[in-house]
Amino acid sequence: MEVINRYITIKNHVEGAPQDSDFELRSSPLLLSLEPGSDEVIVKNIYVSIDPGQLNRMKSYSSSQDCSTFAVAMTPGEDIDAYGVGKVVVSGNPKFGKGDIVAGFLNWGGFTVVKPGGMYITIKNHVDGAPQDSDFELRSSPLSLSLDPASHEVIVKNLYVSIDPYQLNRMKSYSSSQQRSNYAVAITPGEDIDTYAVGKVVASGNPKFVKGDLVAGLLKWGDFTVVKPGGMLNKLDPMGFPLSYHVGILGFSGLTAYAGFFEICKPKKGEKVFVSAALGSVGNLVGQFAKALGCYVVGSAGSKEKVALLKEKLGFDGAFNYREETDLKLTLQRYFPDGIDIYFDNVGGDMQEAAVSNMNINGRIAVCGVISEYTDREKRGAPSMIDVIYKRLKIQGFLAGDHMNLFGDFLSTTCDHLRSGKIQPLEDISDGVESIPSALINLFRGQNIGKKIVRIAEE
Amino acid sequence: MEVINRYITIKNHVEGAPQDSDFELRSSPLLLSLEPGSDEVIVKNIYVSIDPGQLNRMKSYSSSQDCSTFAVAMTPGEDIDAYGVGKVVVSGNPKFGKGDIVAGFLNWGGFTVVKPGGMYITIKNHVDGAPQDSDFELRSSPLSLSLDPASHEVIVKNLYVSIDPYQLNRMKSYSSSQQRSNYAVAITPGEDIDTYAVGKVVASGNPKFVKGDLVAGLLKWGDFTVVKPGGMLNKLDPMGFPLSYHVGILGFSGLTAYAGFFEICKPKKGEKVFVSAALGSVGNLVGQFAKALGCYVVGSAGSKEKVALLKEKLGFDGAFNYREETDLKLTLQRYFPDGIDIYFDNVGGDMQEAAVSNMNINGRIAVCGVISEYTDREKRGAPSMIDVIYKRLKIQGFLAGDHMNLFGDFLSTTCDHLRSGKIQPLEDISDGVESIPSALINLFRGQNIGKKIVRIAEE
Fold first, then answer.
1. From the list A370, A392, A402, which residue is nearest B397 (CB)?
2. Which of A63, A239, B73, B338 sits 20 to 30 Å CA-CA off B181?
C-alpha cells in the first residue's frame, strides 16, 4: 500500500526568529512495505515534540552543531527529526511488531522510516579516574535519518571494534590532549564514541561504496555507524586474514608499533630494545618487529603468565613482572648490563624514569602511551634531564595518524611476517556491544593479553 | 756554566717487584743559564722522596695512571719526578731568587729545570649542592716535566677561560653524566680542571704548534696548561675580534646555541620561540639567532634589569622575571597566546613542565641545560607525557661537541652577524685565576650577564 507522507522541512537556514516563510510542507509517496531482508521499521507518527533547541539546528552555523549528535545541522529540503511517539505499521525488525506503540526520534511528518539503529555504548558522566562499570550506559540508537543519495553518507554494520587506552583521555572532564588531536576529541556524556573498526556497508549514498563492501575506519562503539562525508572510511581487502587482524595487528595498533619503532626509533640490528606493557596491543608487536630485525629485546608486563608468554610464545630475550620489582632502575640494569638503546614507552611514570637512567648515548625513547598517567595525573615520571643532555637522548611523542604514508610498507612487511610465522598475532576478543565497557575497564587492570577487540557481529 | 746532570730513569716498564736491572743512571749536559725572557727556575736537588706509589707509574698499565695527575705513567728513558727539596741555582721567575730553598716536584736526579707552572684552581672536596667558596682551593703547580720534543706536548699560557654551569656536574661525588661524556668526566679533589679556553703557546714539542701561536681548546682553570698529545687544541685565528669572543660567542657557547637552535630545533621564520635563562651565555645567543631569523622570541630571566636588557639591548619581543611569577603555565600562556613552537631549555624543572603544556603540535624542545637540577636533584620537572604524545613533541638533549661539523657554518654566520651588528656580544669578564671560584659560584646565583669568562692574563 502506498500513502502520501506529508512532512515539514526548512526552505532556507533560519538565522533570526523563525517565520512562516522559512518552512515548507512537502509530500512524497511512501510504500508501506519493506524489501525482503530489510530490518527497517515504519512508524506512523502520533505526537512529535517541538523544542526551542531545533532552531540552533536550522542556523547556517551554530557551534552547538559540532558538539552533539542531537544538534546536527539541518539541510534545507531534508526532513526534520524530533523526539516523538508513534505506532508501528510495518516492521522488518524482530524487536518490533505491527501495532506497537514506540517512542524515539521520529520525523516532523506523517510517517517515519526508522532504519536499524541498534545499540551503542556511551558514558553517563566524565571519567576522571580508573573507569568503572557505572560510568557506562548501553543505549539504543534511532538512526531515523533516511539515506538521501545526495547526503553521501554511508551506513556501516560494525563487525570488530578496537578498544584502546587512549579513549579514557577523551572521557575526562579535561585533558589537554582533547584540543590537540582529531583522534582525541572530548567525548560528551550521552554521545556515541568512535574508534578504529572494521565493518560492512549496509547502505551507501557515497559512490565510492556499495552495499556489502568490507570497510575499515572510524566507526562507533555500537551496532551501526552512519559515516558522514569526510569521515575516515576505506574499503578493506582482508588479504586472506581474519577480519579482526585488520582492527589490530594489520590496523592502527600495528601501524602504531611499526611507525613508532621504525620511524621514531630508527633501530639498527643488534641494538638493545626495552618495551613496557610488552603484552599490550602495540608493545607485543614492537617486540616482535625488533626480534625480526635482530635486536636484543626485553619486555615488562604485570603477571607471571604474561612474562612466560613473552619469552616462550613471542621469543623475547628477557621479560619481567614489574609488580615484583622494588627498584626498577636496578631491574633494568640487570636486564641491560650494556644499557638500553631504544625504549618503546607505553606506560610513562617510574618506568620511564628508570629507563632514562639506563639509556645509552644517543638513545631514543618513543612515547606511545602513558597508561600510568591516564588514570592518575600524579603518577608522572620526572626523568633526569642531566641524563637527557649528556646521553643526547631523544624523547619523542607520536601518533600513528601522522604516518599514514607508511601504511603500505607496514602492511606488506607485517603480512609477510605473519605468513612466514615470524610474527604471532595476539588477540583478546570479547563479544557484543554490551561487553565494550568491561573490555575498556579491564585494559586498565592489565587483564588483556594482546590486542583487545570486541566482536560486534559475525560477518 | 754547564754541568753534567745525572738522573735515574727506567729502562723498561716494571710489572713485578722492581729489580736493579730495571733502572738506569743517565747523564746529560745542563747549561746553568736561561734564555732571555724565560721564567724557568733551575733547582739543585737536595732530598727527593722515594714512595711505593711510584711503582704504579712504572707499570705498562695501571688503572691508577688514568686517575690522578700525580700517578701519570712513566715512559722508559724519561726522567722521573717526585716530591723533593732543593735550592734555586738560576731563576727567571720573579717569585724565586738564587739560593732560595724550595719544595715541590723535582726529579730523581741532580738538577731539575722547573718550567713556569703558575697557579690553578682545584676543588677540596666533592660539591653536591650549590658551590661555596670553601669548596675551592688555589694551588701552585710544579710543571717540572722538561719538555722532550718526542713527547709531543705543548705548553700553553692560558689567557681567557670559560666558566660554565656543567662543571658542577663534574664536581659531584656522583652524577650519571660523568660516565657518559668526555666533556663531563668526574673531577677528583686536588686535580686540575679543564675547560674551553684560549691561550698562547709558550713551548711546543708538537710540530703543529710553535711558540707564540694563539690556540683554543681544552685548557686548565689555571695559569698554564701542558696539553698532551690527543688533547683538544687548535690554532686560533682571531679574525679581528677580541680573544674573549673566541671563548664565548665564537667558541663553545656560540656553537652550543647554533647547533641546538638550528640543528635540534630546525626553526622556521615566524615560529614562536621561548628561551629560558635567556641572558645566559647560550640563551642570549639563541634568542639573537632566532630574532635574526625572523622568529617571535620571549625570554625568561631572574631580575628586572635582565628583563630590560633582553627587550632593550637584544630586541626580544617579550621577557619576564620568573621570580615574580606565581604560575608559570599562565605566564607562558600570556606571552604565547598562540602557543610555543620551540623551547630552548636551559633550566629544566617547573619551567619545562609549564613549557610542555604550552607547546604547539610538532613542537621541539632542545634540552641544553638544567640549572635547577644541577644544584638540587629534587627539582626535576615532570612534564605531561600525554602532551608529549598528542602534540607529537620532541624533547632532545644535545652536546655541542657532537656538532663540530657545523663549526665552519656557525663561525661564518656569527661573524657576519657580529660585523653587521645583528648580534650583540654579551660578556661578563673577571680577572685572575683566583676569581674563578666566585665566577662559578655566582653563575648559580644568576649573577652573570651573558657569557662568564675569566681573563687569566693579557695577551
1. A392
2. B73
Q: For the whole model, what pTM was predicted?
A: 0.75
Q: Which of B41, B180, B24, B14 is nearest to B102 (CA)?
A: B41
The answer to which of A142-146, A225-229, B439-443 has the lowest mean pLDDT is A142-146
Per-residue model confidence (pLDDT) at position A377: 62
Q: pLDDT per residue over A323-352, tens digit each?
A: 999 999 999 999 999 999 999 999 999 999
A399/B387 CB distance under 8 A: no
Longest dimension (CA), chain A: 81
* Tens of pLDDT, residues A85-127: 999 999 987 778 899 998 777 889 999 988 766 788 999 999 9
Say if the Cβ atoms of B373 and A380 lie within 8 Å: no
Q: Do B396 and A391 touch (CB under 8 A)?
A: no
| Mutation to test the B interface, candidates A128, A371, A390, most B Cβ within 10 Å | A390
User: Is B396–A397 a contact, with Cβ atoms under 8 angstroms apart?
Assistant: no
**Domain B117-247 architecture:** Alpha-Beta Complex (3.90)
Which residues of chain A lie closer than 8 angstroms to B184, CB-CB? 390
- DSSP states of A289-355: HHHHHT-EEEEEESSHHHHHHHHHTS--SEEEEGGG-S-HHHHHHHH-TT-EEEEEESS-HHHHHHH
- List C-alpha distances in Å: B331 to B147, B224, B327: 59, 47, 6
Taking CB atoms and an 8 Å cutoff, what residues of chain A touch B180? 361, 387, 390-391
* Closest Cβ opposite residue A176 in set B368, B384, B394: B384
Beta bridge partners of A5: A28
Question: B228 pLDDT exceeds 90?
Answer: no
Do B177 and A390 count as a contact with CB atoms less than 8 A apart? yes
pLDDT digits (tens, 9 = 90+) for B1-11: 889 999 999 99
CATH topology of domain A117-247+442-459: Quinone Oxidoreductase; Chain A, domain 1 (3.90.180)
